[in-house]
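Exam revision sheet. Question 4 asks you to relate a sequence to its structure. Input first:
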Amino acid sequence: MQKSSRLAIYALVELAANPDRQVSVAEIGEKYRVSAHHLAKVMHTLGRAGLVRSIRGVGGGYSFSGNAKRTTLLDVISLFEDTSGECKLTDSSAATSVEWVLFDVMCEIDDIAKATFGAITISTMLKQTERRRKPAGVGVGAGAGAAASRPAR
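Answer key, structure tokens:
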């Protein structure tokens, strides 16, 4: 997944968590440790797609204007990446059987990823985020120096 897609998902989840609040690009950028300049470009794309609304002036920023229950991660990713493409083997005329098998495996992984991203909505992300929040000092991810590994389910 490209950085723009990740930034867009971070921003949408942040904004959808408080749909009545206006959040600045700088505030989102600081929270997710990303360039405000890059994030501004992402927000512009999200605005054109109707997922966020820009509010100008003092106290302005962005607010969520999409439908969190209908907007999937695949919808968001598709704004920044080509998700419609077919799986292609660069030189199929000279491919060995091992290359074809690996190609088939990679295509299957792509299909599974698309299906998963297409099944997860912004609303689902909000629910998962709430489940991840734990009191300070409890469980994985509690401290600033916590390891970035995925906890067992």
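Marking note for examiners. Residues 58 and 143 are 34 Å apart (CA to CA).
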